[in-house]
Amino acid sequence: MVNRGDGPDAGAADFVERLLAPAVGALRPPTALSPLPFDLNAGVPDAATLPARDLAEAARRALERDPAGALTYGGALGYEPLRAWIAERQSAETGVALTAANVTLTSGSAHAIDNLAATFLGPGDVVITPAPTYPGAVRAFRARGARVAPVPQDSDGIDPGALAEALRRLEAAGAPAKLVYVVANYDNPSGSTLPWERRTELAALARGHGALIVEDDAYAGIDLDGPPPRPLFAAAGGRGILRVGTFSKTIATGLRVGWITAAPSIVERLSFMRFDNGASPFAQRTVYEYLSAGGYDAHVAVLRDLYRERRDVSARALSELCGAHVTFRRPAGGFFHWLRLSGGLRAPAVVAAAAHEGVAVTPGANYYPDPGARPPGAPPPGERGESELRLVYSAHPPATLREAIARFAGALSRVAAGAPPPAHRPPPVL
């Protein structure tokens, strides 16, 4: 054997880099928790709300009722009683008759999106997304070799006129869109909620152009101004649509229990493209026991009150302390404020100045798929998100939010004045 000097011992990092899949070098890094003391960057639930005691009791019941079922492979579709529970709830929400055959369980909504991508997308296939949009979905689509076609959205969500134009343009180019991805309720990052009229128009457009809708409903239940319009799934009559849900935001992210609701024929295909022997039967049965105990709706009502207070406290602080430098529309639910910087401020400078104050916020550019063809009405690629920021209000109590936003306001003022950050900053009191 000839030793060419390029095996693992000749430089492990270079050797591994040469073997990586092409997608690894093409994807943006995922969003992560920040080590800064005021993390307004990661969209996570409040840790104090986790129903640990009730879940411990639910786990005990799951193990006592059927230890073998809870601790062995459970199949790709998942635990049938939990699928039936989800189907019953969604039948009531949508007016579409659903059964367990319409539901497959996943390891959270992120895995659900990846399962959809694995089933429907190959190299060169096209997915339409809003711009801005959830970057985790973009990563999943691009990891399968798909091309992402961004369509502008406004304060009411994806623009139907721009969507119609994009669908026509892609068809004319011989690359029709396979999927249209949208977060209809409390969009991440913009916080927008699609009005009912847009939902019906979106459903009709997708159906007319032979595209499937992926309705990511990760923030379902976090309704801070009353119920949102009926789901896109209802607007489409359950046809040509794949609805993604999760218990991460209403019970606990660590459970990793999510689902996809679709026609049974699609559910079968999704199951076929699973290579993980199914998500955790223990977690699914624990969730089912927790739900069956009857406290879930009361728990979600508590969450709504808590997040409503935090949204309102943070909105007031932003208006009072940052109003000279940012504009925003108060979201009707979810976890996010989407801030637009004024006066020529740019997000990278503000993010850096805020970090010096111990405050983590996310630059808007992280939420714009790039590069590629620019959709009509969109700014040039170098400017997308440059004057926007996402700020999360879910994870901190009101006093901490006020302190964080006061520090953020100081960072905005210094950037606006062109002043350097102070040499030292006193440690926060949390």
Biggest sheet: strands, sense, closure? 8 strands, mixed
Strand tally: 14
Which descriptor suits the 3D outline?
globular
Proportion in β-strands = 5-15%
The ordered string of helix (H) and strand (E) elements is: HHEHHHEHEHEEHEHEHEEHHHEEHEEEH
Structure annotation, total helices? 15
Low-confidence stretches: 1-5, 426-430
Largest sheet, order of strands side by side?
2-9-8-7-6-3-4-5
Arithmetic mean pLDDT = 92
> How many angstroms does the end-to-end distance come to?
62 Å
Q: Summarize the amount of helix as a percent range.
A: 40-55%
Structural class: alpha/beta
Radius of gyration: 23 Å
Structure description:
The strands form 3 sheets. The chain has an 8-stranded mixed beta sheet with strand order 2-9-8-7-6-3-4-5, sandwiched between helices. Strands 10-11-14-13 form a 4-stranded antiparallel beta sheet, covered by helices on one side. 41% of the residues lie in helices and 14% in strands. Helix 6 (108-120) runs parallel beside helix 7 (135-143) and helix 13 (296-322) runs parallel beside helix 15 (398-417). The protein starts with 11 loop residues before the first helix and ends in a 13-residue tail after the last helix. It has helices spanning 12-19, 22-26, 52-65, 67-71, 80-94, 108-120, 135-143, 160-172, 196-208, 232-235, 264-272, 281-292, 296-322, 347-356, 398-417, and strands at residues 38-39, 103-106, 126-131, 147-154, 157-158, 177-182, 212-216, 241-246, 258-261, 326-327, 336-341, 359-360, 362-363, 388-392. It is an alpha/beta fold. Mean pLDDT is 92; it is low at 1-5 and 426-430.
